[in-house]
Amino acid sequence: MVKVIRKIKKSDSENYIKFLGTAGARFVMIKQLRASGGLWVSYKGTNVIVDPGPGSIVRCSASKPKLDPTTLDGIILTHKHLDHSNDINVMIEAMTEGGFKKRGTVFVPADALEIEPVILPHTKSFPDRIIYLKEGEEYSIENIRFATPKRHLHTVETYGLKFLFDKISVSLIADTRYFEGIEDYYKSDIVIINLVFYEPRPGIDHLNFEEAKQIIRNINPSMAILTHFGMSMLKHKPHELAEELKANTGINVVAAYDGMKLVIP
Fold first, then answer.
1. CA-CA distance, 61 to 63, in Å (whole number)?
2. CB atoms near residue 156 (< 10 Å)
3. What's the pLDDT tens digit per position in 73-123?
4. Which of these, 113, 106, 170, 185, lies nearest to 139 by C-alpha position?
5. What is the pLDDT of residues 128-151, one digit of tens each?
6. Percent of the chain scoring above 90 in pLDDT
7. Which of 72, 104, 165, 177 is deepest in the core (most CB within 10 A)?
């Protein structure tokens, strides 16, 4: 059974996803009302960080127990916006121990390198590989497999992720405008949803609360986790909204908090 817990037993600590931050949109990030460190995925000794935004390296150091970025095997960017990519060069430096150990794989959309690149020229040569993400492809980093089911509707090239662990699948619906069929692409045991807005904001490519509710109903996962909150979501208290969704759908819905760990069996 998958559990969300505040403290990890030593026997459970090998396989987990840790939320190094749950901030979404500019002002929650700028004010650091929630941290913006991304997701740390650890599975069978393989460590990957997803979307290392501002302060990611600090959140690793402040984590209990601490997370050591020099143990990273890979870095994944869903897209290049600063709240997702600001610390990518820091993490490349850490993963490769300042570039002295050429190792690790970095996965990014093509525009993160080819159009207004977010990876600096001097760190670009540090990893073993830099791989461009593409729609409908599957990738692996040591013991972690993941897919990019669909290119999202966002202002830059953006992909959601679907992690394919041995016993369960975990999807991350990254920043996007709602589109028909999104639920089919991210059917999984656990779904993590970037939920910036409480109410619709026409012309802005992010999901809102009602759309998240529809997605959760249609996917019907064993657990849904809300994260990446904007100001309007914080105003309406994500943990209360999660309880509302849980009552309305009968699905275990959780509002992520900074430092939360999701144990993967």
1. 6
2. 18
3. 999 999 999 999 999 999 999 999 999 999 999 999 999 999 999 999 999
4. 106
5. 999 999 999 999 999 999 999 999
6. 93
7. 72
Residue 255: half-sphere exposure toward Cβ, Cα within 13 Å:
19
Across residues 155-179, what is the average pLDDT? 98
Would you state the structure tokens that stand for residue 98, as one six-digit string?
């300042």
**Peptide bond preceding 109: is omega within 30 degrees of 0, i.e. cis?**
no
Residue count (the chain): 265
Could you tell me the CATH number of the domain that includes residue 134?
3.60.15.10
Structural domain count, the chain? 1
Residues with Cβ < 8 Å from 36, sequence gap 6 or more?
Answer: 21, 23, 28, 29, 53, 54, 55, 56, 83, 86
Which contacts of 150-156 are long-range, i.e. CB under 8 A and separated by 24 or more positions? 150/182, 150/185, 152/79, 152/176, 152/177, 152/179, 152/205, 153/177, 153/178, 153/179, 153/205, 154/79, 154/205, 155/81, 155/205, 156/79, 156/80, 156/81, 156/109, 156/111
Q: Is there a domain that residue 5 lies in?
A: no
Q: Which domain holds residue 118?
A: 14-263
Taking the C-alpha atoms of residue 236 and residue 81, their distance in angstroms, rounded to an integer, is: 25
- HSE-up of residue 149 (Cα within 13 Å, Cβ side): 19
SS3 141: strand
**Does residue 72 sit within a domain?**
yes
Whether 2 maps to a domain, the answer reads no
Residue 5 clears pLDDT 90, i.e. is over it: no
